[in-house]
Every structure is written in structure tokens, then in C-alpha cells.
Amino acid sequence: MINDVPVQERKNFTLSSKPDNTEDTYSKAPVSQFAQNLLSKMGFQEGQPIGKNSQKSSALLKPIEFLSRGDREGLGVNPMKTYRYAGEKEKQESDKFQDVVILSGKYKKMKGVKLEVIKTQGQSDTYLIELKSNGEKIKIAADQVVEAKFYKEEKSRSRSKSKSQKQLKWITSGIVVKVKNKHYQGGKFYNKNISISDVQDEYTFSALGSHGELIEDLKEKDVKVTLPKKGGRVCIVKGEFKGELGQFVEKKEKKIVLVKLENGRLFEFEKKSVCRLI
């Protein structure tokens, strides 16, 4: 169009200066047709292979479609498996947010919630688990996890064989205690703080050492409560207010501490009734 206008007159040229440029004109040449015309000038014919090797049997009949990748997935990553049958996606969705127990490894016997099922082509499924004790999110192989309801059934059967064990009186998950048994594991943990990671049932608990060591065979009598610095978070582990959370204020006497509960009220407690939170 512009080529039909003399060079000296092009500065004054506008679309409206061509009397034959009506809406009808543009409707007769849609964008799709414009692109098709460009391709045909480059040798493209509908239904014929494309590319410089169009005569070979391996030539493409259809263009390569763009497949988007997930967050942080770079070149060379194996794409997620496609769902093999109708309803598989719904099944995967229903597997989320289940209570589970970890069977082996660093987090053995710890409880968590299944947040996501990660499927990767050519590999076993992996679960994204949020631990109930501290909210940490971990990835773990599916065969290392079991639904909590099945684990509890197994535990209840084994527990009936060992009624001689004493029930836990004050241990609860999420607190920091100090090992007072000098002979436990040759004194390796004596007088050191450990974190109660999980309480499996009314008889047993597991803990983590300062370097992440899994501790499973301690008894309640082997540990004692610890206190935080002033202003630190605590849990009431004995008495009328058992289970209440609060803030450590100060030591009043040798065996008495002052705690401000979450409702804002101040109370005095025996030192052995209050324990530091993780």
C-alpha cells in the first residue's frame, strides 16, 4: 500500500487518504489468511510435511506444541506423568491431607500430614509431608509412610503384649526436656536438651537430639523439664492447667515459677509443672 505512494508524498499518507480502504476491505483479508499467505510464499502446503527435510518419512506433519513446565523445572527435567485413566486425578486429590506415620529413616515413627503426592516418570511416588511436631515439611518415599489409622491398629495389637510399661504422665510433643539418666547410651545424652518430637501412644515417645539424632527408647523417668529464658514460650504439663500455653515470666522461689497464660492471667506453678516449648 505504501509502495504505491510517491516518496515525496509519503509523509502526508494516512490510511484514510486511500478511498478504497473501507471496513469491507479489511474483513476480506483476516489476520489468519495473512499468516497463511506468508507461509505459502515460503513453500508451505496444507497437509504436507514441513521443514527442510520435508521429503523424508520422519518429517513433521504437525507443528511442535509448547508444553509448559512447573515451577523451577528447567531443561532436561522429566515431566510429570499424565493421568492414565479418567478419575486418577480425583484419586490423587483424595489422597491429600491424610494423617500418616513415617516408618523408617531419620523421622521414624513421627506423625505428619500428607500435603502432596509427587509423581515423576520412571520413579516411585514421593510424598510431601508436614510434620505435626514442628511444622517442618519434608519429602519422603511413599513406601516409608503408612496411614495413621493402620499404624494405630498395629500398635494397639503389639501394646497388649507389654502391659508392664508405665503410662506417660506429663510428656507431650513439642517440648524440650533434659536427659537426667547418666547411663543412657553410655552417658552420650546426659544433661543435654532433647526435643520431644512425637508421642506415639500413652506409653511411648520419640525425641530428637541437638544434631537430629532419633531417640526412641527413653522412659519418662529418664528426663526432666527445662525452662526458657524470661519471655520464652512454655507449656503447662501437670495439674489443673495441663496443656495450657503461656510465657515464662520469672522464678519466684527455688521451686516456684511465674507464668503468664495466653488469656493474660498470671499464675504461680511448681517448676516441675512447666516446660519449655520447642
Topology, pairings included?
Blueprint lengths: L22 H5 L3 H11 L46 H7 L4 E4 L8 E8 L7 E6 L5 E5 L3 E3 H12 L16 E4 L13 E7 L5 E4 L5 E2 L7 E3 L7 E4 L8 E7 L4 E6 L4 E5 L3 E3 L2
Antiparallel strand pairs: 1-2, 1-5, 2-3, 3-4, 6-7, 6-10, 7-8, 8-9, 11-12, 11-15, 12-13, 13-14
Describe the structure.
InterPro entries: G_patch_dom (IPR000467), Spp2-like (IPR045166), Spp2/MOS2_G-patch (IPR026822). Among the domains are: 62 residues, SH3 type barrels (Roll); 50 residues, SH3 type barrels, CATH 2.30.30.140; 44 residues, SH3 type barrels. It is built from 4 helices and 15 strands. The chain has a 5-stranded antiparallel beta sheet. The protein has a 5-stranded antiparallel beta sheet with strand order 9-8-7-6-10, with no helix packed on it. The chain has a 5-stranded antiparallel beta sheet with strand order 14-13-12-11-15, with no helix packed on it. It has 278 residues and is an alpha+beta fold.
